[in-house]
Amino acid sequence: MLRSKRQRISDDDPLARAMEPPPGETFEERQRRLAAEQEAKRVSDAIDEELNRQRISEKKGPKAIKILLLGQSESGKSTTLKNFQLMNSPKVAVILCPKGHNTDPRSLQAFRSERASWRAVIQLNVVQSIHAILDLMSKAHSSVHVASTSPHPPPTSSSSHSTNRLSASHKDYPSITTEHLKLKMRLGPLLQVEAALVKKLLPYGHVQLSGLANPAQSFPIQQEISVNSSAGWKGTFSRLIGRDSCDSSDLIDWSNPDDPGVVLNACAEDMKRLWADPIVKKMMEIEKMRPEEMAGFFLDALDRVTSLHYSPTDDDILRARLKTLGVSEHRFSMKTGPLGSPMSHDWRVFDVGGQRSLRAAWVPYFDDMNAIIFLAPISCFDQVLQEDPTVNRLADSFLLWKSIVSNPLLKKTDLVLFLNKCDILRAKLASGIRLADYIVSYGSRPNDFESASVYLRKKFAVLLKDHSPDRQLYCHFTSVTDTKSTTLILENVQDLLVRDNLKRSALV
Ligand SMILES: Nc1nc2c(ncn2[C@@H]2O[C@H](COP(=O)(O)OP(=O)(O)OP(=O)(O)O)[C@@H](O)[C@H]2O)c(=O)[nH]1
Ligand SMILES: [Mg+2]
């Protein structure tokens, strides 16, 4: 009975039928068949084992190479990160978006979902530059007014931006006219735009008041917004508009009368008038205020950035200023490798906030990094820290570099030094600002970029030699707002780190 049931199953099941011993199999034939089956199983198990081994080793993989970006606030860390983003964007020639806001297909890929958010940041940067100039005008006005009614000169209080500058002790401002006062009034609506833009970004960050409150000025004091770059602020404006698209600038409702761009466009001529005004220029000169060297400077592109259909280019995004709060991690998979045989590597780049109060948050990341890119803005020799106006920015960079190179947790970490903002240094020295007036030891050396940059590099090299003598100095002169040169430098750095990584894994 049992037999007949098995017989039925094998009749129904083609696999069972195929596996059945051939009818009338002899003892020798059976032995041969079983041996063949055993061999087939052995081969199959070996294949499974190999596949399993490959899966495990893929999982373990070559470890991601981790880079931590360090440096004081405004040194260019987030801008360097944006360069990594640009390098990592797929270089496809197909333009998927219907509206070609930017002709570089690479850039369409890199920042496309963030463009509307960066537009708002740039608008805020523009408004804040104008705000700073208006503050200065108010200050000059009140100081001239006080001087004309008082036998004593007014005390010198600094404007919001001049707190970042070692300012002149004696201020002899030119008088402003009623035309200036009218201009200031007409620019009033920009303050509402500023408040609205700050409010939109606020849920993702935090507002800091910068500069000193001046009771004589009718404009409120400046606010600087900082965001946690991992907090999703870049989607803020897309979400406000409410839909998803391939390029977030396609989501901007150009006909919305409440769009900040409308007010900026309406105030464009007055902003240009203010920026070109000779009396305002004279005031800025006295105050040593040079907006063109400040973070987020767009006053030389007012026609473009205030146009009704303005959408930021990559260069604009690189120049936009938004202070970082906290630490954020960015993952890239890039083809890099020495000897002309590019391999795909996973890269993790960590961006941090550089302001003094945020530096304690760097330490937990120290023991797990392959490399640190340390940014020192060497153009800042005549500026002070925003968070502590008693400290010179260059002096702060030297101290910070010293503490990084001598930190025992970073003993095995590669250090790459970017002496940044070389474009600003070059322009500053060419305009007659003397390095020797701020660094006495510079002495009578020529006040040109070549001599100054070599001198400053040497200062950083000496600190490394004194505090970490076994380490080699990898140093680059950079202007990280220039993507072309920065891409070459970052490729060079990546090459160095891949080689180093390979060397280390060979030693392990
Ligand atoms: N002209 C010029 N501007 C630069 C350069 N590097 C950075 N900037 C600008 O300087 C401003 C500050 O740069 P960020 O990259 O935001 O500075 P950060 O180090 O991230 O600053 P925190 O986030 O405050 O720590 C931005 O507006 C940049 O566009 C440079 O080499 N040249
Ligand atoms: Mg930053």
Automatic annotation (TrEMBL):
Residues binding Mg(2+), per UniProt: T324
Record-listed GTP binding positions: 318-324, 351-355, 420-423
Any Gene Ontology biological process: adenylate cyclase-modulating G protein-coupled receptor signaling pathway
Matches recorded under PROSITE patterns: G_ALPHA
A Pfam match: G-alpha
Basic and acidic residues: bias regions: 27-46
CDD domains per the UniProt record, alphabetical: G-alpha
Region (Disordered), start-end ranges: 1-46, 145-169
Protein name: G-alpha-domain-containing protein
Species per Swiss-Prot/TrEMBL record: Rhizopogon vesiculosus
Taxonomic placement: Eukaryota, Fungi, Dikarya, Basidiomycota, Agaricomycotina
